[in-house]
Amino acid sequence: xxxxxxxxxxxxxxxxxxxxxxxVVPWWLTGWQAGTxxxxxxxxxxxxxxxxxxxxxxxxxxxxxxxxxxxxxxxxPTEQLxxxxxxxxxxxxxxxxxxxxxxxxALLLSRPVLLGYAAAVAAAFxxxxxxxxxxxxxxxxxxxxxxxxxxxxxxxxxLTPVRTEPPA
Length: 168
Known about the structure:
The protein is mostly helical and 168 residues long.
């Protein structure tokens, strides 16, 4: 896949999937109306989580398009296993970024319903990763994915990045 096509496809998928999960549904649940205000440090944490999650999401999507020459969408997967950038710290930075955005919104808006929604989304992400994504990546990338899976944790980021080799 050409880089321009991969960038366009990744951008479209970014709007469609995380845009709905971390944007449309939280809006539908809250109307972006704040509840009874939680303490200022909690709200500041909400801003930080929302901003950091959005930045991580964009960084992760960019690596899929540029390094992997593909998209996160299953119908248009990457040509290369993506192991650089945020993927040197954790195997699932996109999912964690979406959860950070939703949790940040919950704290920022003082809306517990979004914490419950984040927990449901986390469970759905975990089921998808274990039931579909990991087996699909193992079939597609074989030993390279298995070595990556052993070196990089799935859900709890490493403090130091794993050294990655250029794709074979």
